[in-house]
Design goal:
Helix 1 packs antiparallel against helix 2 and helix 2 packs antiparallel against helix 4. The termini are far apart. The protein is of the alpha+beta class. The chain is 37% helix and 25% strand.
């Protein structure tokens, strides 16, 4: 049997979690816990979901693992989270101190990745991960986090017709 890398093991566990979890809310709760516990450099892991009908459009904190954050509601025109949700593109910041969009949550945070979640072709939220390590998010990490966001999007599509 081939030996799996740590990231491949985590990905396989995420696949099994998604198959065994009946709804998106529960999947997000279990996913943030698994990612936070299993990947050393993932110091804060959380989901933000777009608030239906909010004007201006607003990201609202959902399931998360890590320290409390003052940023429980983020307008789409603010921060790295707002940039990812507005553009529909993954944003990786190797050094948050050099990115003027960064909304400081923790002095320990050195790098961040934010991946939009799509359901029915529209951005409905995002998966946000902070790390206390600079340049923590390699291409392998980006692939994993994008895969997690895709699984949540599919689960949301199944329940939001």
């Amino acid at each position: 049997m081939p030996v799996l890398s740590k990231m491949e093991e985590v990905r396989q566990d995420i696949v099994e979690l998604a198959q065994a979890t009946p709804n998106a809310q529960e999947l997000m709760q279990k996913m943030v816990r698994l990612l936070h516990e299993r990947v050393l450099k993932y110091n804060w892991v959380g989901f933000y979901l777009l608030e239906a009908g909010a004007q201006p459009p607003m990201l609202v904190l959902g399931a998360f693992e890590g320290a409390m954050t003052p940023h429980t509601r983020i307008p789409l025109n603010q921060g790295i989270c707002g940039a990812a949700a507005s553009s529909g593109l993954t944003v990786v910041v190797d050094d948050v101190s050099k990115d003027p969009r960064y909304l400081a949550c923790s002095l320990e945070t050195k790098s961040e990745i934010v991946v939009p979640i799509f359901a029915h072709g529209k951005v409905v939220g995002e998966l946000d991960i902070d790390s206390h390590f600079p340049a923590a998010f390699t291409a392998e990490h980006q692939d994993l986090v994008q895969y997690c966001a895709m699984l949540v999007g599919k689960k949301l599509e199944a329940f939001r017709q």
